[in-house]
Amino acid sequence: MQDKGTLKNTMASANPQNISLALHKRFLQRFIETHILGRFYKIELTNFEKGMADDAVVQKYIPAISQTVFYSLLLVPALLILNTEIVVSVLIPTTMVAGTAWFSVSLASMKKKFEKFGMELTKHLFVAFSLSLMMLLLATLASLTAPLWQPLIPPALTRSILTQMVSAALAIFVVGKLLFSIFSGSLKYDINDAMLTGQNEVAERFFKQSLSLMFITAQQLRTGMPLQVANYYLGLCFYEIFNNILELKITALKSVEKLIEEANKLIRNPSMTQEEADKIVLALIQLFIDLCSKGNDVQEHHSYQAIEIELDCLNQNTREDRKMIDIRMSVVLSEISNLIEEFGPMLFDDHVSEK
Asked: Which residues contact 308 (CB under 8 A, 6 or more apart)?
């Protein structure tokens, strides 16, 4: 037997209004996924990519379109009763501003931790753009079909002060919502842009210093080199990588500084035994893996997974000859290079200090 609380929740969920709302959302979701994004969903997507698309549909497009329809309906009385020339004159430049903002906004460089904030930001701009388009469409329809509907409206209704005031208030409310969405989205985009101040400069320096040295070292390891030269190159390579990571002001400073000193041992004493050198290099590779962001976009990246596989092989296959070990390490460096090139400093966002 159900208790009163459970029965009450069941009855609330069966409320016709809730059912109608659920059907409305389901219809919009099906319409967007089938008709608007139909070709997109036919592409072979990874689980992560499909998840991102589904989240955008559910969290951004459906609420935004629902808001657009609701606020547009509030404008109908003004279009039928008032002189709409002023509304149209406001809408045309507003639509241009909203459209420019929407099509120019890009969150490609947004930090992972601001992902939900970015969804909210783009939602505001999308609402503004779609609402301005819908309002412009309604104003156009009202103007072109006026001979059809104007005779149906009682003259007393159009002359009523109360009707005019209510219609004007609703129109002002809708236009206010439109302008606020543009303002809110612009402000949020600006604060995100402020969070990226200096990031491009850091990324450029990171790329120049790390990528070129990793590429050279990986090539040298593949072609074969004496043990001392290999140790020196590996030490120099990881020394540059972790020094550049330190510039990002990550929280794991002590661990990084300790392994920078280990990399220095390879540089200062490249004639150490293979076992000693391999132990240091494996610890450096493991630290790099530990510092990487734990987000799905990094964890599921083929380069990240390749590094984990090669690191496991280097730890387990202790009887491999020098040539095979060098090949595996060259692969690790190449994949590290790929990760840095694709994600840049954002690769280590989980460990960047908030201060």
From this structure: 289
Q: Using CA atoms, how far apart are residues 164 and 160, in angstroms rounded to an integer?
A: 6
Cα–Cα distance measured from residue 241 to residue 355, given in angstroms and rounded to the nearest whole number: 22
How far separated are the first and last CA of the chain, in Å rounded?
55
CB 54 within 8 A of CB 66: no
254-271 residue pLDDT tens: 677 777 888 888 888 888
Closest CA to 82 of 161, 186, 194: 161
| CB proximity list for 196: less than 8 A, separation 6 or greater | 109, 110, 111
The whole-angstrom separation of Cα 250 and Cα 288 is 12
Tell me, what amino acid is at 186? S
CB atoms near residue 94 (< 10 Å): 20
Tokens encoding 91: 């809408």
Report DSSP state, residue 82.
S
What's the CA gap between 43 and 279, in Å, rounded?
A: 44
Q: How far apart are CA 108 and CA 115, in angstroms?
A: 10
Structural tokens at position 158: 């159009």
Query: 164-174 pLDDT, tens per residue?
Result: 899 889 988 98
Mean residue pLDDT across the chain: 77
> pTM for the whole thing?
0.53
Cβ(106)–Cβ(196) below 8 Å: no
How far is Cα 131 from Cα 103, in angstroms, rounded to an integer? 15
pLDDT for position 12: 45
Contact yes or no for 265/312 (Cβ under 8 A): no
Name 352's bridge partners. 250
State the alpha helices, DSSP H only, in 115-226: 115-144, 146-149, 155-159, 161-195, 199-206, 212-223
SS3 291: helix
The encoded tokens of residue 320 equal 């491999």
3-state secondary structure of 332: helix
Residue with tokens 């070292």: 217
Query: In sequence order, which residues have a C-beta less than 8 Å from that of residue 114 and are 6 or more positions away?
Result: 192, 195
